[in-house]
Amino acid sequence: MVDVILHLVDRGLLDELVALSVDEISSAMEATSLRGSRPEADPRFHRDFDVDLEGEVLELIDDSEGLGEGSSLAEEKSDSAMELSLLLARWCSTAQWTCWDARLFLYLEPFIESPLSGQDAFLDHGVWEQFSESLSRTDRSSYSESVVLDWMSRREDMGETMEPSEDPMILPTMESHRTLSESLFNIMESLRRSEMELMAGREFLEAGRWMLGRSTLSETWGLES
């Protein structure tokens, strides 16, 4: 199983950053001068620390031959440029949510129009749009409870026990589903109430294939643009 990762991204700030040259980005990260313009973090969620992202950006730039040849990052067409764009999108994030892909099928599929077909379904803007619309018609407690009940029903259909005395992981797993589904509801609610864009990807996914809004990073700035 791999983690699917969601971010809420300040697209206006991101557009400003990718309009800079790689040298300008490097100098700003080294001087920590971009920290003041980073969007305020949502305290309910994790996000990358300033110093960690600054280090990742500087390391990528140092290790990438040929990166920095364009007048702006947005004009560069390389895998390294895509990786740097993804790091900057994470810099512009107010909230991050992470979940195993196998669990995310359970959290989304009952609330969209058609079955999800593989991991790439989570990179489809339309899937998240349908899911957000469904959540707008319910509340956090009802959604979370429906997820837990669906999980219990699936276990019973497979002949699995729901007795904690027979499986000590039943209660911790149930609580984990409840907590994760509630936080997923929260981040989707924040998306609807803000001007942020949803960015979705997963572990080990090429940077250019991450979804940002309605397009991938490659479609927006990379080799496909």
Give an overview of the whole structure:
The chain is α+β, with helices and mostly antiparallel strands and 225 residues long. The chain has one domain (3-221). Helix content is 49%, strand content 11%. A five-stranded antiparallel sheet has the order 2-1-3-4-5. α1 (11-18) packs across α4 (79-91) and α7 (140-157) packs antiparallel against α8. The protein is elongated.
Q: Any chance you could write out the topology, listing elements then pairs?
A:
Blueprint lengths: L2 E7 L1 H8 L3 H9 L19 H14 L15 H13 L1 E8 H8 L16 H11 L4 H18 L12 H24 L3 E6 L8 E2 L2 E2 H5 L4
Antiparallel strand pairs: 1-2, 1-3, 3-4, 4-5
Helix pairs in contact: 1-4, 2-3, 3-4, 7-8
Characteristic key phrases:
5 strands, 9 helices, 225 residues, single chain, 5-stranded antiparallel β-sheet
Rounded mean pLDDT is 93
- Give the termini distance in whole angstroms: 31 Å
Summarize the helix and strand pattern as letters.
EHHHHEHHHHEEEH
Helix content: 40-55%
Radius of gyration: 19 Å
Q: Tell me the count of domains.
A: 1
**Count of individual helical segments:** 9
